[in-house]
């Protein structure tokens, strides 16, 4: 199917196209280093007249929280698929802290419907990797109660869409109880699962729940897109005292990448610089990152220099990384898989307009999926989500 | 007319621990004792043993139907409580009643707001169960939670302040009437939507089991979940009954059946109104008890709590009780029949316990009066304390949203928003 080709193609695109090692960029402890790298790229690119003058990047304040620096030698490390990276992260955290447990449908004996929990039940037992009956609302609530009394559950939604049944617990209890109890109880749960438009899975299995959950106060949302950040975000989410919702994507589980051997986490609140550039900022996350990188290939051939940022943190937005990029390029394109109405892109557009209005040379453009229940037919499904050709057209339009 | 002693009329009476002859044995899965649930192969291998259940080597008791525990105890012809216990129960119920009466007064004087649901009339259930628990056992309740919090040990001052919305409240004024939480006393709330707390209670019970079986700690903590008759038609209730029985979680599901869900009579909402029957359907004992009699409730509670502590799993207890006031202070309470209200008013649990204590020479009238006076003073003092306490400042607005305030994210200047000085003032943009 076309979407799988996109997935596989994008993975190779990521490893061969990007002139700078992506890991160097994503794991810097001081943000200013990112811009030193970006500066060196600028000299390679053509400029397109006065409309695209490059401003000097702002003086940056070192960030408050340092993430571990990556091992820059790429000779060590091991290659694995994204679902294996998630499993590795989960297993390491379960080894590290006996209070970490997993709950969900078919996570135990079956190994998880996307194999993320494969082998864990054999290693940790049936109580730590709990096969629940099919009652999302109740087992999510149960995990919340367990979290309030000292455990650190990782709740798996077999498909994120199923968590709609747990909305009561996620909104009222998961998000709110820390506040309504006056700070007495913490709810360090991780809610994770695959979502997004897959391969002709039909409307209900192709939902993007990040748009529904984003208003819930008290939760954080992150979306992983590479094996490296999948493992890093999984670990960070488990270690966080806040409830975190980790969005995975059905089509990205088989992406392959080499990741470091040693322990690392990805900061939950930071965005990831995928490709620095000068002409336009493209903000994206999850699967659309690969559509964007595919479009970037075409764009570079046409002489454009897009800066691609994987926002990773869907709530809260990393306005520092995003802001610095906007201040540099003055043009923003958001590419997302959410619906047009009320999606992450809609919130991001508002946030950018509110905070960086003065720096924009053109209106923020947002490419989202159509406000349509995802059809079954392959052709129709392809047209509901944003395709690389549309991204290229949008960039050309914005950069006129 | 039922007195404090008369056993409740039940449609099915079967001994919980009685002789072998009358056992109603329901087939249950016989998973191997050592491993939690085990493989499905071991399950099918044991299914043929169902018929020979009486000879099974496992000591777990069969699932049985309803029981009249009090009836059995009566035959031994001894008192159900000692003097000390009696006074503790009496004081707890008086505290519950006085506090709720004071809440009504304060509400109409404009000191507390919103939805306030009072517990008058149901004190026997709260006292009967919670006074048997230790500090580390957990209680989960609904919006009618003031008295559960008080019975569990949360001070009257903390609850009253919370109701007034003051900083000294048990939840810093952020929760209100429907969200009484106390980490110290393991009061896990206080929930506004019905049924919402039952999964949380199931989770607390799961924690106990996890601590015992995975972390190998000494943990005998049980959880008691209180909820009403209306909740028993909600999916979360059934989902949790299933999970609790499946994994033998140390939890007691207590139904406070006061026959009314705001204006909806239980009989008009429920196809089979006998809620206790739903326990055996899931593989746990279902017990019906007179919820207006604290001693009967206490006897059933003892049994259910002991079961849970032994690791035998959950129990469903249906307490027939009644609320003397409306659903909330905003409810005009016009639908309920005056005769029904009078009937239950005559069965006031406090009056019944008082009668029992005096008739059995466990306490004198004067002693009980002094307890009432003491409680009156306590509640008055709680009101004074709450009145004098400060209201929350602006700085409190953004605290406690996240346990780790980095969750508010990174602002345009590169610093975490929680580092912004305006954050502590409660005026930061988040």
Automatic annotation (TrEMBL), chain A:
CDD domains for this protein: TPP_PYR_E1-PDHc-beta_like (cd07036)
Cofactor(s) listed: thiamine diphosphate
Coiled coil: none
EC numbers on record: 1.2.4.1
Catalytic activity as recorded in UniProt: N(6)-[(R)-lipoyl]-L-lysyl-[protein] + pyruvate + H(+) = N(6)-[(R)-S(8)-acetyldihydrolipoyl]-L-lysyl-[protein] + CO2
Residue stretches spanning the membrane: none
Keyword Oxidoreductase: yes
Top-level lineage group: Eukaryota
Domain Transketolase-like pyrimidine-binding: 80-255
First-level EC class: oxidoreductase
SMART domains named in the record: Transket_pyr
This protein's UniProt keywords: Oxidoreductase, Pyruvate, Thiamine pyrophosphate
Job of this protein: The pyruvate dehydrogenase complex catalyzes the overall conversion of pyruvate to acetyl-CoA and CO(2). It contains multiple copies of three enzymatic components: pyruvate dehydrogenase (E1), dihydrolipoamide acetyltransferase (E2) and lipoamide dehydrogenase (E3).
Protein's name according to its UniProt entry: pyruvate dehydrogenase (acetyl-transferring)
Organism name: Camelina sativa (False flax)
Classification of source organism: Eukaryota, Viridiplantae, Streptophyta, Embryophyta, Tracheophyta
UniProtKB/TrEMBL annotation, chain B:
Cofactor: thiamine diphosphate
Superkingdom: Eukaryota
Pfam family, one: E1_dh
Organism whose genome encodes this protein: Camelina sativa (False flax)
Top EC class for this record: oxidoreductase
UniProt-listed InterPro entries: DH_E1, PDH_E1_Alpha_Subunit, Pyrv_DH_E1_asu_subgrp-y, THDP-binding
Entries under NCBIfam families matching the protein: PDH_E1_alph_y (TIGR03182)
Role: The pyruvate dehydrogenase complex catalyzes the overall conversion of pyruvate to acetyl-CoA and CO(2). It contains multiple copies of three enzymatic components: pyruvate dehydrogenase (E1), dihydrolipoamide acetyltransferase (E2) and lipoamide dehydrogenase (E3).
Keyword terms of this UniProt record: Coiled coil, Oxidoreductase, Pyruvate, Thiamine pyrophosphate
Descriptive protein name: Pyruvate dehydrogenase E1 component subunit alpha
Regions annotated as coiled coil: 361-388
EC annotation from Swiss-Prot or TrEMBL: 1.2.4.1
Complex formation: Tetramer of 2 alpha and 2 beta subunits.
Domain Dehydrogenase E1 component: 92-392
Upper classification of the organism: Eukaryota, Viridiplantae, Streptophyta, Embryophyta, Tracheophyta
Catalytic activities: N(6)-[(R)-lipoyl]-L-lysyl-[protein] + pyruvate + H(+) = N(6)-[(R)-S(8)-acetyldihydrolipoyl]-L-lysyl-[protein] + CO2
């Amino acid at each position: 199917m076309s979407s799988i080709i996109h997935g596989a193609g994008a993975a190779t695109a990521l490893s061969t196209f990007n002139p700078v090692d992506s890991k160097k960029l994503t794991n810097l402890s001081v943000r200013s280093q990112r811009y030193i790298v970006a500066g060196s790229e600028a000299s390679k690119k053509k400029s397109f007249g006065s409309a695209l003058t490059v401003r000097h990047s702002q003086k940056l304040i070192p960030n408050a929280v340092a993430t571990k620096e990556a091992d820059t030698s790429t000779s060590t490390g091991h290659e694995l698929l994204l679902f294996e990276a998630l499993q590795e992260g989960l297993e390491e955290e379960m080894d590290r802290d006996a209070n970490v447990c997993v709950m969900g449908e078919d996570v135990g004996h079956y190994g998880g419907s996307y194999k993320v929990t494969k082998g864990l039940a054999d290693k940790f037992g049936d109580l730590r990797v709990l096969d629940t009956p099919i009652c999302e609302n109740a087992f999510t609530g149960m995990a919340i109660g367990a979290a309030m009394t000292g455990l650190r559950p990782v709740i798996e939604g077999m498909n994120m869409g199923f968590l709609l049944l747990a909305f009561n617990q996620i909104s009222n209890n998961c998000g709110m109880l820390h506040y309504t109890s006056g700070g007495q109880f913490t709810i360090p749960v991780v809610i994770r699962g695959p979502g997004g438009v897959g391969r002709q899975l039909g409307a209900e299995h192709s939902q993007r729940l990040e748009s529904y959950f984003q208003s819930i106060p008290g939760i954080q949302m992150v979306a992983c897109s590479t094996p490296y950040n999948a493992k890093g975000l999984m670990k960070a989410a488990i270690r966080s005292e806040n409830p975190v919702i980790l969005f995975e994507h059905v089509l990205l589980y088989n992406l392959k990448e080499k990741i470091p051997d040693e322990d690392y986490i990805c900061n939950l609140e930071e965005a990831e610089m995928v490709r620095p550039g000068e002409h336009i900022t493209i903000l994206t996350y999850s699967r659309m990152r690969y559509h964007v990188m595919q479009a970037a290939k075409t764009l570079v051939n046409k002489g454009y220099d897009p800066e691609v940022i994987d926002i990773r943190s869907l709530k809260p937005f990393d306005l520092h990384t995003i802001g610095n990029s906007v201040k540099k390029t003055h043009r923003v394109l958001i590419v997302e898989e959410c619906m047009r109405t009320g999606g992450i892109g809609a919130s991001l557009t508002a946030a950018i307009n509110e905070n960086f209005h003065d720096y924009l040379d053109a209106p923020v453009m947002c490419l989202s999926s159509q406000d349509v229940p995802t059809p079954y037919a392959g052709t129709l499904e392809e047209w509901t989500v944003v395709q690389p050709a549309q991204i290229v057209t949008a960039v050309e339009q914005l950069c006129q | 007319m039922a007195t404090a002693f008369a056993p409740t009329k039940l449609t099915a009476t079967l001994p919980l621990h009685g002789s072998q002859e009358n056992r109603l044995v329901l087939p249950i899965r016989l998973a191997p004792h050592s491993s939690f649930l085990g493989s499905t192969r071991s399950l099918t291998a044991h299914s043929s043993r169902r018929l020979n259940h009486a000879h099974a080597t496992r000591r777990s008791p069969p699932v049985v139907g309803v029981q009249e525990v009090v009836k059995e105890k009566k035959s031994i012809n001894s008192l159900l409580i000692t003097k000390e216990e009696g006074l503790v129960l009496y004081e707890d119920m008086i505290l519950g009643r006085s506090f709720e009466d004071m809440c009504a007064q304060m509400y109409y004087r404009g000191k507390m707001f919103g939805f306030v649901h009072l517990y008058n009339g149901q004190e026997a259930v709260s006292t009967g169960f919670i006074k048997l628990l230790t500090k580390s056992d957990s209680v989960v309740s609904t919006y009618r939670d003031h008295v559960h919090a008080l019975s569990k040990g949360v001070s009257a001052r903390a609850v009253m302040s919370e109701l007034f919305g003051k900083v000294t409240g048990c939840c810093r004024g952020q929760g209100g009437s429907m969200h009484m939480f106390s980490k110290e006393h393991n009061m896990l709330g206080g929930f506004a939507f019905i049924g919402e707390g039952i999964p949380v209670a199931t989770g607390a019970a799961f924690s106990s089991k996890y601590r015992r079986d995975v972390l190998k700690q000494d943990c005998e903590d049980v959880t008691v979940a209180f909820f009403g008759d209306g909740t028993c038609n909600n999916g979360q209730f059934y989902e949790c009954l299933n999970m609790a029985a499946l994994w033998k979680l140390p939890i007691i599901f207590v139904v406070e059946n006061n026959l009314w869900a705001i204006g909806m009579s239980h009989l008009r909402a429920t196809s089979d109104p006998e809620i206790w029957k739903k326990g055996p359907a899931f593989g746990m004992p279902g017990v019906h008890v007179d919820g207006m009699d604290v001693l009967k409730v206490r006897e059933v509670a003892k049994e259910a709590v002991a079961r849970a502590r032994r690791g035998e799993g959950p129990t469903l207890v249906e307490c027939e009780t009644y609320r003397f006031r409306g659903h909330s202070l905003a409810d005009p309470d016009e639908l309920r029949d005056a005769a029904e209200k009078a009937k239950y008013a005559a069965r006031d649990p406090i009056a019944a316990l008082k009668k029992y204590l005096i008739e059995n020479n466990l306490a004198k009238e004067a002693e009980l009066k002094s307890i009432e006076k003491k409680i009156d003073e306590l509640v008055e003092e709680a009101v004074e304390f709450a009145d004098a306490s400060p209201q929350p400042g602006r700085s409190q607005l953004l605290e406690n949203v996240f346990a780790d305030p980095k969750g508010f994210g990174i602002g345009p200047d590169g610093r975490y928003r929680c580092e912004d000085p305006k954050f502590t003032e409660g005026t930061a943009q988040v």
